[in-house]
Design brief:
Layout: E1 2-5, E2 11-14, H1 20-31, E3 34-40, H2 46-57, E4 61-66, E5 69-75, E6 83-85, H3 90-100, E7 106-110, H4 122-128, E8 143-146, E9 154-157, H5 163-175, E10 180-185, H6 190-202, E11 208-210, E12 214-217, E13 227-231, H7 236-249, E14 251-255, H8 268-275, E15 278-282, E16 285-289, E17 294-295, E18 298-300, H9 308-316, E19 318-319, E20 321-325, H10 337-347, E21 352-355, E22 358-362, E23 371-373, H11 378-388, E24 395-398, H12 410-416, E25 421-424
Parallel strand pairs: 2-14, 3-13, 6-7, 9-10, 17-19, 18-20, 23-24
Antiparallel strand pairs: 1-24, 1-25, 3-5, 4-5, 7-8, 10-12, 11-12, 14-16, 15-16, 20-22, 21-22
Helix pairs in contact: 1-2, 1-3, 1-6, 3-5, 5-6, 7-9, 7-11, 9-11
């Protein structure tokens, strides 16, 4: 799909989708919960649908109550299935791999598209400590898993991703009978682990940690409730695009955002405030209005790497040179985001520099009217669309359908804010 976006000033109210990060964790928790889980405000992106499909293949029963509520009924023990398909969701692949390891039967974890090219090397190092074998493992999906997982203490290197730790925490809280610990080094994306721990706590399985280095799973601290209700927060990752769009040149109120959320991308508020943007935090909503020239910023996105593409666009609108750290976290996303962000900025005519782990972006008045390829990456497509609002003319985005991975309504929401755009299939 190709989308042509004309420059404009976005104004209005936005209700962003709910968090796919929280939704997928809730699905995994519901699968391993014996009883009924009511999910309020369920998310519906491609990644969320992949998670729902997986838990149904593993024996959970999912029913739609209404537009804002689904029920998941499970006996708490996943049933054997030959293959689970994770779509293009890296979280699904890394989270459900330890979960299917609970089974005695062999299970193939597969996916499609860019996910098949994303390294999974760490999974063998982790699961082998728990007695799980991976026949014919070559470092990529599809992976054959031969359990069952033996709950015991282990060590995890969190350098490449926190998602393996998320899967382990969920799997071990489902099977450990005595205290087990996970010793973690170099943990990245700590807020995502906070989100995992919050979801586990809602399922009655609190996990303690010492400075994110030692996680203690103690079944004696668990409590059981047959009926669980979990509310999925609005997605701060999706909201970030609108908040930046307004700061650059517009006036928007983004509703249903929880200031108490554990989501990493809530950090966008701190970045915007550091630029001098007009930000008003109200109960359940954030309002941002463009009022004056923004100042350059320095931000370490190591623990919130999904913000990187839209931060690059924000930096262009700031006076001076902004510094964004954390490029090392971007190589194995839906695209090589260091490369795809560089291509996007080059197409827009932006002066920038990659220096080791840091991206330096020089501010400028207008972006070029140009063509940008999303490289199949939803976050590049959305960042380019926000950049287009401040371009000198129309901007064409190729492979714009990538937004369906996390935000299927993105372009219709953009049009609802008074922006003139055209889609071509």
């Amino acid at each position: 799909m190709q989308v042509i976006i004309n420059p404009g000033v976005p104004e209005g109210i936005i209700h962003p989708p709910t968090s796919k990060s929280m939704m997928q964790r809730a699905c995994a928790g519901a699968l391993l919960h014996r009883g009924t889980t009511t999910v309020i405000n369920p998310a519906g992106s491609k990644d969320d649908l992949a998670a729902l499909d997986i838990i149904q293949q593993l024996g959970a029963h999912v029913s739609v109550v209404n537009q804002n509520e689904i029920k998941i009924v499970s006996n708490g023990s996943p049933q054997a299935t030959p293959v689970i398909n994770c779509g293009e969701s890296g979280l699904c692949a890394r989270m459900f791999t330890p979960i299917v390891s609970l089974l005695q039967a062999q299970v193939v974890v597969s996916g499609h598209g860019s996910l098949l090219h994303r390294p999974m090397n760490e999974v063998n190092d982790i699961l082998s400590q728990l007695g799980v074998t991976l026949p014919h493992f070559n470092g990529y999906l599809p992976i054959t898993i031969q359990g069952p997982l033996q709950p015991r203490s282990l060590h995890v290197d969190g350098t490449s991703s926190s998602q393996y730790l998320t899967g382990l925490l969920i799997a071990l809280t489902a099977t450990a009978q005595t205290v087990v610990t996970i010793d973690v080094t170099n943990l990245q994306s700590r807020p995502y682990i906070d989100l995992t721990l919050d979801v586990l706590s809602q399922f009655g399985k609190p996990v303690a940690h010492t400075d994110y280095r030692l996680f203690t799973i103690d079944p004696s601290s668990f409590f059981r409730k047959e009926n669980i209700s979990i509310v999925i927060d609005a997605d701060w990752s999706s909201a970030a695009y609108w908040l930046v769009a307004a700061a650059i040149g517009g006036s928007l109120r983004v509703n249903n955002l929880s200031a108490k959320s554990f989501q990493a991308d809530k950090a966008i508020i701190d970045v915007l405030l550091s630029t001098g943007a007009n930000v008003v935090v109200d109960q359940g909503s954030i309002s941002v209005t463009h009022g004056h020239q923004l100042s350059s910023f320095v931000y370490d996105a190591t623990h919130s790497p999904d913000l990187f593409p839209i931060l690059a666009i924000l930096a262009v609108a700031c006076s001076g040179t902004s510094h964004i750290k954390g490029l090392s976290r971007l190589i194995h996303k839906e695209s090589n985001r260091t490369a795809s962000i560089s291509h996007m900025l080059t197409a827009f005519g932006v002066s920038f520099e990659v220096d080791g782990d840091t991206l330096r972006v020089a501010g400028q008045c207008k972006l070029h009217a140009t063509t940008v390829d999303s490289h199949g990456d939803h976050r590049i497509a959305m960042a380019a669309a926000i950049g287009a609002l401040n371009a000198a003319g129309p901007v064409i985005i190729h492979n714009a359908q990538a937004v369906s991975k996390s935000y299927p309504q993105f372009f219709s929401h953009l049009a609802s804010l008074g922006i003139n755009l055209e889609s071509k299939h």
